[in-house]
Design a protein that fits this description.
The complex is a heterodimer of chains A (about 375) and B (about 290). With about 375 residues, chain A is mainly α. In chain A, about 70% of the residues lie in helices and about 5% in strands. Chain A has two domains: about 20-50 and about 145-370, no CATH class; about 65-135. Chain B has helices spanning about 40-45, 90-100, 105-115, 130-145, 160-175, 190-195, 215-220, 260-270, 285-294, and strands at about 1-10, 15-25, 30-35, 55-60, 65, 75, 150-155, 180-185, 200-205, 205-210, 225-230, 240-250, 250-255, 275-280. The chains are: A mainly alpha (about 375), B alpha/beta (about 290). The interface between A and B is large, with 31 and 40 residues.
Chain lengths: ~375, ~290
Amino acid sequence: MSNVTRPVHTAPTFAQSVWLVSNREITARLRSKSFLIATGILLLISVASVIVGSLASQNESLTKVAVVGTAIGVVEQTKAFDIVESDTVAGAEALVRDGTVDAAVVPSDSADSLLGITVIALDSAPRDVLGTLSVRPEVKILEPASQDGFLAYLVAIGFGIIFLMSATTFGATIAQSVVEEKQTRIVEILMSTISVRALLAGKVLGNSLMAFGQIVSIGLLVSIGLAVTGQRVLLADVGPAIVWFAVFFAFGFVLLAALYAATASMVSRQEDVGSATSPVLFLVMIPYFMVVFFNDNPLVLAIMSYVPFSAPVGMPVRIFLGQAEWWEPVLSLVVLALSTMVVILIGSRIYSNALLRMGARVSLRDALHK
Amino acid sequence: MLDIRAVTKRYGTREVLTDVSFTVGDGRMTGFVGANGAGKTTTMRIILGVLSPDSGTVLIDGVPVTANDRRRFGYMPEERGLYPKMKVAEQLVYLARLHGLAPASARRNTDDLLERLGLTERAGDTVESLSLGNQQRAQIAAALVHDPEFLVLDEPFSGLDPLAVEVVMSVLTGYAAQGAPVLFSSHQLDIVERLCDDLVIIADGEIRAHGSREALREQHSSPRFEIRTAGDTGWIRSQPGITVIDFDGDFAVFESETDAASQAVLQRAIALGAVHTFSQQRPSLATIFKEVIA
């Protein structure tokens, strides 16, 4: 065909093919209303949980007390009160009566008073004021807990839920898009154009990028939320765990995505996607339930943090609880990366063997051997 | 030239293609016919590399075809399908780019092709919103959008309305006229008869006949002639080496044992008066097909 000018067919490299496919996946996702709505809701929930958390912890605003004369020295030391100065004891009493302050601290009349002050309150002894002003004996704690138990529970469940939701949403998306191509038969055109590996890699990459993007946005929103609502202490504790979670998720999701694609490729109709991918769904749900029931059991958490399917949840929780040595997440990540590679190899074999088989569900044995 | 050489394919123990060999010449419209399950689709999938053969090769100009060469193929699978929720033009640009076209030429080709197929107004519609006929046209566009140098089309005419058949025929012959080898399968033998230069007939996974349409006709034509003259043709019965099959006054169909015997009939007829027609009966494709696969 030398007599006609034709566009040059510069064959795209493997990477270019993968990129084209993943681009299409991403565009298709971004155009889907249901995807946008689901993502919006997930982001709203994460922001809301931060705000609710901050409101719950912010009740400890400074107590207002009226102070007269020399008592101010004692009260100021504690730095725990919002101080309103008053000239006379009568004036301070008036402030207590009209509710401007919770209590008044005035110089004591009696000479044998230890602190030299008297606390005036309206109808009952103000416990918080008394507690702050009283002299406490020294306390020694033998084994300080690194994190408050309830907070640890919340963080563990938070990671569990986010992992479960993102993995199942995007896993289902990948499975549907595999079967869509199979069901609409466009897969035959695709297979005649690019390699099956490039097709699978593009689908996994595109959806993994979207899932990872979602996780990073949630992480950023939660971090910003914690910073803005003044929970910087919590942020400093959770921050590293969130970063590790994102890293583990990146690898862990690729593994799940390959599994979802491979299992979905064995069926030809959207109706069968659910049953075909249900084994993978169990794999995703196990770490969630484990973390809900065993977040206070260091041994179970330690095992979880090394098993590839549960490591993305297990390891960040252990990092947050301060149970992990510095090298543990690195080792676990290596285990996860290696298993991801193995799963991709097996998955792409199933995928390429099953893609052209229409009709009845392809048995796993056929998909692996033929 | 596309050369399919000794291709064999098994599914399990069942051999679906046995030593399949044929060529698709440059600029030749090659019809590929056979009954359902004869192996047409499997052969085409092997040419496109969607399936790999158990033995045998596919060559382009004598060189085994590579994955990169396959991007120069235009393929229309028997099982039609495009992304239902993707817009027609976007989808074509995507497919063109997967075949290695730069974004600009991909868009230009898409616009040209939609214009030629009368789909310009539907460019922004999703495929699922198109009528069946227009979906077929979009499918054809998908096979052609990257300006392929070889066309392999599995049943390109099935499901098309007569108007669309004409459009597609002219597009395909256009490609062949430019020198592209075109292989297409069809159940509609009348279309194949009109369209093809060469013919490949497959049955039970074996090539039963292969060659130019005219050569095949020649090969399968019976020694039957028909003649229509101004006067009565009853005298033909007494000609040597001639058996009359049908007779109706000025019209007769006869079989001739030798060329000389039939020529003798013609000469005598001319001597007797005017001859309106004298022709050897040519078998239709349907007849050849039945004969070959029997």
